[in-house]
Amino acid sequence: MFISTIKQLVTGICTILLFSTVSMAQMPGQQPAPPVPAVSADVTDEEVGKFATIALAFDAIQADVDRQILQAVNDAGMTTERFTAIMQSQQNPTAAAELNVTEEEMELLNGIGPQVQMIQMGSQERVLAAIEEEDMTVERFQQIAAGSQADEELAERINTEVENRAEDTE
């Protein structure tokens, strides 16, 4: 696994955690405080190991979520390729205008929306459970994640541990 892959995993995990923890604890009108990044010297080898285990669990959870969402899309009668194109176009207004999404396609997407939300909520619960299973708090996980984005040494330590643990499971 490359450091960029680890950064993608971290970003995905943090996104899930941000939506799950902020929505539960935030007062109306408040902005969440960003986690204070941890630096490599402040992160123990044990924490790096726990973080790596959580990252690998997240990777498996994300793969399952992707599979479930694509199955829901296919069951609704839309191809995976078209669904992906529409979802990507929603991030780019220029592409959206050129894609020509039909009313029928929008109805299909709106119809599977609740199912996709349930799948995503389940993934949030699974990620939180993976963190708890490693006896790490969400806040500490977020600190290490933020640190891995800013501290190349910490990112390398995590990357090495993820690679070692991934090899052990193969």
Report on the structure:
With about 170 residues, the protein is an all-alpha fold. It has one domain. The N terminus is likely disordered.
End-to-end CA span:
13 Å
Element string (H = helix, E = strand): HHHHHHH
Radius of gyration: 18 Å
Would you tell me the overall average pLDDT? 83
Q: What would the keywords be for this entry?
A:
single chain; 170 residues; mainly alpha; 7 helices; elongated; disordered N terminus
Outline of the structure:
The chain is an all-alpha fold and 170 residues long.
SSE topology:
Elements: H1 3-25, H2 45-76, H3 80-89, H4 93-99, H5 103-133, H6 138-150, H7 152-169
